[in-house]
Amino acid sequence: MRKFTLLDGLVVPLDRANVDTDAIIPKQFLKSIKRSGFGPNAFDEWRYLDHGEPGQDCSKRPSNPDFVLNQSRYQGAQVLLARENFGCGSSREHAPWALEDYGFRVIIAPSFADIFFNNCFKNGLLPIKLDADKVDALFKAVESNVGYKLKVDLEQQTIALPDGTAYKFDVDAHRKHCLLNGLDDIGLTLEHVGDIKAFEAKHRGAQPWLYA
Amino acid sequence: MSAQTLYDKLWNSHVVRQEADGTALIYIDRQLVHEVTSPQAFEGLKLAHRKPWRTASMLATPDHNVPTKNLGGGIKDPISRLQVETLDANCAEFGIVEFKRGDARQGVVHVMGPEQGATLPGMTVVCGDSHTSTHGAFAALAHGIGTSEVEHVMATQCLVAKKSKAMLIKVEGVLGRGVTAKDIALAVIGRMGTAGGTGYAIEFAGSAIRGLSMEGRMTLCNMAIEAGARAGMIAADDTTFAYIKGRPYAPQGDNWDKAVAYWKTLHSDEGAAFDAVVELDATIIRPQVTWGTSPEMVTDIDGSVPDPASAPDAVKRGDWERALAYMGLTANTPMTEIKIDKVFIGSCTNGRIEDMRAAAAVAKGKKVAANVKLAMVVPGSGLVKAQAEQEGLDKIFVEAGFEWRDPGCSMCLAMNDDRLEPGERCASTSNRNFEGRQGQGGRTHLVSPEMAAAAAIAGHFVDVSKL
Ligand code: SF4
Known about the structure:
Structural class of chain A: alpha/beta
Strand content of chain A: 5-15%
Largest interface: A-B, 25 and 37 residues
Distance between the termini of chain A: 34 Å
Bound molecules: iron/sulfur cluster
Number of helices of chain A: 8
Oligomer: heterodimer
Radius of gyration of chain B: 21 Å
């Protein structure tokens, strides 16, 4: 998993509540054998004017000029500013896979769907819950300032606004540790390689037929 | 040491380390792999430049997407084909043993593993598939896991897990004529509900369970997941050892004796404490048929479609009404009056040789009814197919008007070309009767292989115990 420490990232505002996992990545893309490469199909139904299928060259498809992600001022955005209950719907990990592959590192919203929130941390994304009035203020600031960026510092748990204001945010200590160090569950488990090897040696002695 | 349950013994013997909150790292002895839930896991490994911890613990086969007709013809659907080819490529790259399509050992992953002797008592077994509970029949701790966990086990040989509560389901007595492990499973689920086992690991015990063959025990543990439990298990005994002996992955020579000595300890101790105990009288279990869209919506063959008006509460009434509408059934219809369009005998629940024999015994010398459009028998593996053919079972089926297919998951979940058309009604030996499971709009009734064969002959459900 990619580490997350500090980010000074361009913000894109997605002004809708209850954005569900089907909207983030429509179900026809789940047949894929990959977990990467979902980025071009993130928000597929909103982003393009035609119907998307796996395996298309998305650069040749008609894009929807009204969808915020397609506006030139937001190209390269790494911070997604969203509304209530972001990521509701299914438990599929394809949703965070798609957002991460698109290039997002941080999602800021007043609330998130539970499973999606968990899945983000497993996949190198930092979801941040912020009070609704602060999120509102950010929406206004982003829309009226081209090139609006936020500095997100995970170690300090702060978001610094261009005007000098800083917001604190909460994050679970264990998840923070994993993100800061780029540790997914596998990374964490591999910190115990010694224990696993010791167990294996003992196990092999007791049940040699399992290793024959 | 105080008395331990079988689950305690299996769990304790695999804890690598445990956190204060009970989260443990559990060592995994066997990982079974199939084409649908493994590609992202392999890709994750590669992206992180990791290698599988112990490839010898892994065994792979394609099953969900493979066609069951025209073995030489390749896979037409390009997306299915790519999934299967990706499994082939990943197994080749990492040096994982794979039984490919066309290899006699290929088959539904949960039929293939035990058949190879790759599932042994005392093991922890995982696979990216919920019906991994099947392997608990061998006194193994067997879990279904998700794709992230598949990758985790590949990379670390461990699973992050918390211990479940223990439930004992005791079934005493002798099963009646025409009553099988499948009927025990459905009767248990009918009684407990599909969430009755949530949070538990279930041990099945009692004289009726000890009396089951390994095939029957696998059928029962297979359906533990439908009762909401992640794992089902049965103590090891002479039936277990006799099944394993001589199989390709079974211990040999000295190791065999050592292994059996250890396996004999794999039962719950006298006086071991369970968090819940359920007792069933085997003698009163009748052949079962589901009538709804969840395995708990089940009744005796002598029963009728229930009346939603008699449901215990408003939520259930709503569920029953929706189920009857989807199934196209009217309340109070006797089960024996329900006509069927298709029959599916197979799957990881009932695709083993004993199931083939039981169905063939019913079909022998008879003809599939005219109203049945398709009756298919899909052996669980190439070896089951070969064995059945050696016994002449294929001829019995074909002469009776059944189609005899190549191994795979087939119409259990309709990921290949085998599926129900909207509105078609099927007697199926699989494990799930969810809406759309066997094809969009398809209507599934879960039954035993004997009951499915009898329904094929009669054109409607019949009481196999009276044949
Ligand atoms: S036979 Fe059915 S339940 Fe079993 S593994 Fe295949 S799809 Fe799953």
